[in-house]
Every structure is written in C-alpha cells, then in structure tokens.
Prior knowledge:
The protein is an all-alpha fold. It has helices at residues 2-5, 13-22, 30-54.
Amino acid sequence: MRVVCNGKSLPITELCKEIINETNEYNKMDKYSILLKQSIHFVLQTKDEKTVLSLFKPGGTTTAKNKFKGTEDFKLITFLIIR
C-alpha cells in the first residue's frame, strides 16, 4: 500500500465517483465485503500454519491464548481500493 500511495495526498476524484456510483454511495459494498472476508481468512490461515510449524522449532511455540477466530475479531477503520 505504501508504494501505491507514495506521493499521493488526495484521492483520485474520478475513481471515487466510479466507486460511489458502483456501490450506490457505499450502501452496496457486498463485493468488497467478500474480498475483505477472504483477506481475513487468508491472514488467519497463515497464522495457523506458522503456529503449527513453530511446534517443530526449538524454543517453544507461538501459540496465543487469545487467537483470532474470524471476521468478528476485526474492525474495519479504513479501506483502500486499487484499480
């Protein structure tokens, strides 16, 4: 995200208008909600894989008592749509 946003301090107005029209002023975000859920699932799956792999390394495991269980453990505070 840093590379894509580097040097940009304002949103690209034309693309914002496209998203506003496409999502009915951000009321129909189903497409993007699905992508967000897939991203969270990927992060959780990757974390689980690292935890399992840590069982076979010296020095203990990386298991956490308060593991994330799903999308309800995350809060969306902002988003970036790249086209």
